[in-house]
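Q: What does the assembly look like in three dimensions?
Context provided by user:
Components: two
Sequences:
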Amino acid sequence: MARLSVPTTARLPSSLRVDASTSAVTKVLNRLSRASLLSLVVDWLGESNQTLCPPLLRRDKEDDDDVDEFYPLAQSLEELRELYADMQAAKGSKREVVDRIVEGDWRMGLSLYQLAMADMRYLYDHPGSLKWIAYRIQQLKSPLNEAEADGAEKPDKETLAIPRFHPSTFLQNLQAEVLPDVKAHYNFDRPEGMPLWLLRIFILDSPYNTTLAVSNRTGDRATTSFDASRTLYIAFPDASPHIYISKSQSTGPAAPGESRSLHSLIVDGIPKALSRPRERYTLNKTNLSTKNLSGLLHIRGAGRTNAAGGGWGIYSELKPTDSPLNPILPTPPLSEDSSSEPMIDNRPVSRTHKRALGPEESRRERAIKRAKMAAQARFGSSAKVDDRKGMERLDIMIEDPFPNTPGVSAPQNEAEAGEAEELERSQSSKSKGRRSGLELEFEQVRDLAEIAGEGSREGTWKPNVRLTFQGSHVFAGIRQLVEAGVINGGRMPGWMTGEEGVSIGAVRDGRIRGHKGSGL
Amino acid sequence: MSSRTSQSPDLSVADKLDNEIAILRSQVGSLKRELKLQATTLLTADSTREIIRQGPDDDSKARIMAQSDQQIAHKQQCLYRACASVTALKIRDPDPNAVDEGNVLGLRFEVMSKSRFIRPYYVMLNRPYPDSRRLRIHRHTVPPSIPLAGLAARHLPAPRSGNDDHNAPQEQDLSRFARALRRELVRYQNRVGVIGDLRNSAGLESKKGKRKEVEFPIVDISAADAEIKQIRIQWADEKTGRLVMDDDGHILKMVVQGENGRDRETVRDLLGGSVRIEELTKRMSGD
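A: Here is the predicted structure of the complete assembly.
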């Protein structure tokens, strides 16, 4: 340990130990399940991790002073490994493992690296625990003259360069952007089965990068600076000009404004760290935030699916039959000959079944099939319940004027009952953009409705309508409603299929406004 | 198969039957495909059409002729797709609120890789601008490693809004856009292919001992950036190298970092005066 603690701009070293009795440490450990905690400890005891998280071992075999303590120190790494492997095999409580770590083998403290590993493990165990916001990396125009340099930064729309990301260079540059009175610890990791790099940034409010930063002897304040730390995750998908940033989490009570400013500091620093001389980048919001990383990778990742959501997905799917050298005519989906359906033995059964049905029944069967076809046409193969790409929230604001049937004047002064009637009528007539068919939403609409006079066209009435869809997989739910015939698949607006790839949007003329429609 | 039965002699009758059914099903599938293929070939043959035309007039004749016409149209489309590599198609936007009544122009880009056609890339364009027939990219299946936005801004500019008229609005040039995009796609696919070739010639793909007997063999070759212009090479003795090539596969730079700084000797050994990346592939596979 360094004798002197001089304020520096360096980052926190991974080997820096945090007092094991700190509440934040036990909190991090207690979040994990017993099984993952034990496998984590086994990881710590691995050969490659010995420089960063060595356990406390008994040095002297004769030194038997504290044999009677509760967790006697092990003599060798092998002994410890065996001990924890035995614990993995046996049953027991999590408490026992945490106590053993905190009061036994790592009583000298856990290194920041260990804490980072524990946090990452929690994230992998609970993939939905963070909310990610997707940003697009966009190149800025390099100014040609003095006046342009002073003006606002303009995105370079004609650039052909694709931003490149190099983890260690990025970290070096990011550290230079972070202010000296904030210390951060960085940890890169590559989650299994996902093509992205995950960067964990652990932020401390301290000018020192030695143990002083994490000790509670800095003053007589009740909370240490460690308790007010914050964690931020940044994900860099491979071969994609996007970045996903998680909302920051603080381990202790912190003033909301302060944490936000730290967060924004980091967010501001990211494009600068990505930039190089004569090649500057900025981050643009893409109106998408979700808890599902694999869903994010689907619409903001590498590959072909970014700008071909919903029914357009059929153009990005891998089908071996779509080669120009294949002379067989493509069969329409859901037809009897479509080869992908392994229903060879079901088919004759359903056919004989159908023949036995009455006219009423067969009409219903046809309607169900039609609804299925409509769902297939609008959603393609996306929005399946089990595809694990679910978005859990969709917010839509409708900015369309209220659809008037011709001959009826604008219903500004009509009573609420009149409005409801109007709603029903518009539903049956050819209205735009509000065919959700959910009575509940309309009730909310009626509550929210206010007469918006400003900025609207002559004789139109623009109610303030916001729709929020919530659930484990919003678009799969809408698809199921279409398949069940609750929503008319043919007249459903495009944004309900998820093809726009946003989680919040304003709808005008029945389409999501502002979004360029193509991920461009 | 025999070893498996010997391992589990008590494989139940149901399992055996299931296996048999699965095999029979796959046979049915392949036979069906075969039948379809033969039928299409027969239907489009000139002599078949002649025979059908001379046959008696009835319902089935009209039906078969219609199917034959359809098949011939499809054949012609396939021919165009295989030869022209950029083809246009008409798509209807399923969104009831789509602009321009849902008319969408699709461009289909055929790219070959490893001597077969891969799944085509699509770009869908529509006309969203009022009082203008200009096109804009609506949807596409081009991966983000292709600078589609930049190409669109260069060749398919949006009509200028009234307030900034400091230079005259450019014309849109769809064919130039398509050509430029196709070029990018093919070059990208070729660079992807080169990585595979390099891995092959270094013996990384095959499990068997094709690998050359060197002291420190190459253990990994992978793309290091989105555009696949940089290649990361790793040796068994912790040396790492970076090779930079340009759009067309010319080797621009190569650096190898060993334990004690830069290792120029390995670079010379590896490249040996190669100018293009394909030459390096040949060198590595043992000349």
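Follow-up: Residues 1-7 of chain B have pLDDT under 50 and may be disordered.
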